[in-house]
Amino acid sequence: MRKICSLLFIILLILPFAVYSQDDEEKIDPTLTEVWEPVPRVVVPGDGNLAPSDAIVLFNGADASEWLGKDGNPIKWKIEDGCMTVVDKTGEIHTRRVFGDCQLHIEFRTPVKVKGESQGRGNSGIFFMDRYELQVLDSYENRSYSNGQCGSIYKQAIPLVNACRKPGEWQTYDVVFTAPRFNDDGILIAPARMTAFQNGVLIQNNFEIKGNTVYRGMPAYAPHGKAPIRLQDHGNPVSYRNIWIREL
Ligand code: MG
Fold this sequence. Notes:
The chain is mainly β and about 250 residues long. The chain folds into two domains: about 1-35, no CATH class; about 55-245, Jelly Rolls. About 10% of the residues lie in helices and about 30% in strands. It has one helix and 15 strands; from the N terminus they run H-E-E-E-E-E-E-E-E-E-E-E-E-E-E-E. The protein has one helix at about 1-25; strands at about 55-60, 65-70, 80, 85, 95, 100-110, 125-130, 130-135, 170-180, 180, 190, 195-200, 200-210, 230, 240-245. Strands 1, 3, 4, 6, 9, 12, 13 and 15 form an eight-stranded antiparallel sheet that branches. A hairpin with a 2-residue loop joins strand 12 (about 195-200) and strand 13. The N and C termini lie far apart (about 70 Å). It binds magnesium ion. The site of magnesium ion has 6 residues, from strand 7.
């Protein structure tokens, strides 16, 4: 009986406060927390995978003028059937323009005729700021080291899953890349970051990049500014199409 009495007492004690706080909350003007400025600018989304209105189209299937070879001359990759394809030993290509923080959409296709294994099958790659490689590889039933398979940030980050389509099928990468920050003395104050979707599947989630991509040894940072996007010639006839970028 005593217990019930004290419980009732506590309830009676708390009740007015509960009622009061609810009333009190209803007195707060909800418009006080509405933010009206600034107004986001309007971007018209593209149809499907097509470029939104504020994107720079880097390759539309025919015009490769946004790209240059390593020597600064027009690219020697094959441009045919709405895509550009690596021609062995013609070298890597890079954008004329330089970029920092960006959203990149790029479509790629590894050769339908399966040849080679591990790193020798459908190898290419997308280098952000000329340094940080998101790997392109035929990783469909093709085992290689996990931090070098398709969707890896080469030798740094294993993709969260293997979302590869079959060789010969077009695939998409949608990437959000954040450039590294250096102070005036060239000291790294914030590393680069990457979030990437392959065929709509999250494969890299805000990964903190450890430094430039290297085949041997450990990655490291050296101060740099904006730089081109580079596509790798690894000797395999990998194709690219529908490439667009939004500067962030
Ligand atoms: Mg590669």
